[in-house]
Amino acid sequence: MSINRRTVLKGLGTTLALPFLESMLPRTSWAAADAANLPPQRMVFIGVEGGTWTGADGFFPYQGGPDAERAKDWGKKGILPGGYLAETGPDYKMPATLEPLADFRKDMLLLSGLHHRNDDIGNAVVNDHGQDLGTLLTGTNISGTPGYALRNGQSFDQFAARRIGDRTRFPSLELVVGNSTYNTKEVGGLANMSYLSYDADGYALPVEGNPGALFDRLFTGGGKDQAKQREIQRRKQKSILDSVVAELKRLNGSISTGDRRKLDEYGSTVREMERRLEQAKAWDGIPVNLPADAQKPARAKGGDPDQARTEEMRMMLDVLALALQTDVTRIATLRLSGYYGSFKFLGFPEDPHGEYAHKCDQPSGQAGLRAIDKYHVEQLAYFCGKLRGMSELGGNVLDNSMVFYGAGLNCGPSKFEGDKLGHYAHIHRNHATVVVGRGGGKLKTGQHVNFDHGTPQNNLYTTMLEVVGVQDEKFGDSTGPLPGLL
């Protein structure tokens, strides 16, 4: 019989609501003992969409102003776009955007020159925003899969979770704060490009945006009543999965080759969910030992919705910090809404993306970008302060963590037109990148390190793998660990 592909997927969608099941499903795995009883090493990836300001008084420390002649050699010997000269080493002047992190100077690495070379490859389906957060942790050529107009690859957090995620109750967490007004959901499942985490098939993983719901999911007790409820839920979900698998088998012989490939991809997601259901049983009856002062976050209170944004961010960061402290997980991603929404409380009431990011060649636009960036860095500093205040073997949780903060788009110096430096809203080079935390003492923090243009950002992720004990393995187009960080 002839079945339209969209009808098939829609029909299956009514049988198995993938986002709902994924968001409800405990992301657990088999317990494993850590060698030598060392403190756990964590990785957190915080991404800001819409870009960051990388011009004067922005994200990077510069020596002197722009220079047209020097700009001709940008990308090597410390020369950044616009001919700015990077101020490197331990004694750099903290740029205005990063001032909230001043107390963490000795605990952080500021990195410049990194980028994903595949982000320079245009795509007919999405504009420059597709290579923002969507490829920040993948580095994938989203146009490089034959037969697909757009397809992402596995993100680094999921790559790492496959290797060390079995050490914790939840291999990874995927979180979000704030809603983006820009997304590409309308073009299909493989084109969800406003996320951070992607599975091995390039599908965006569902995210949790409710701090209270996250608290409940992470810290349910190990008593008989909770175990009974989890078993009921598992059986229900398993029943749905079994029916979907049977439907996939029935349809497979009656559709075209192209549709069969789509169903195979759908089936791989089902199999991954089955694996997680089985692995979840390993943690039944094992309670999470919460600190005595741990509390479930309440809903953000009323009042100015702009002010509530900060409260929501900090509630989510509080729960994430608690998850790291209790070793419920060691890998997490958190997407911030970036240049979307309203920032009236900062004194910038206009549409931040249209009026500031897209007008970054004007002083008023640059002022708005710096203010919004600094606001987000303040939330990063708040989170790092929470981690540093959590004592454990070997120091504190921040000492044993790597908190990545960055973006896949820059708003900043582009090129000279005569003697005037131009700025562009969406640049895929010199990614704004900060890592806070010492990685258990393995990272040489307290410095700004510049790399020549063309150095893969995936080299940073390979370096992070080395820190958590995964040796001699590369990710994506990585050519090896970054020199000077270990």
Give a quick account of the main beta sheet: strands, pairing sense, barrel closure: 7 strands, mixed
Question: How many structural units, i.e. domains?
Answer: 2
Distance between the termini: 60 Å
Number of strands: 15
What is the SS-derived class? alpha/beta
Helix proportion range:
25-40%
CATH architecture of the largest domain: 3-Layer(aba) Sandwich
Biggest sheet: strand arrangement: 7-8-1-11-14-6-15
Q: Classify the beta-strand content into a percent band.
A: 5-15%
Rg is: 23 Å
Low-confidence stretches: 1-36, 181-187
Shape by Cα distribution: globular
CATH topology call of the largest domain:
Alkaline Phosphatase, subunit A
Helix count from the secondary structure assignment = 12
Q: What top-tier CATH class of the largest domain fits best?
A: Alpha Beta
Order of helices and strands: HHEEEHEEEHHEHHHHEHHEEEEEEEH
**Mean residue pLDDT:** 80
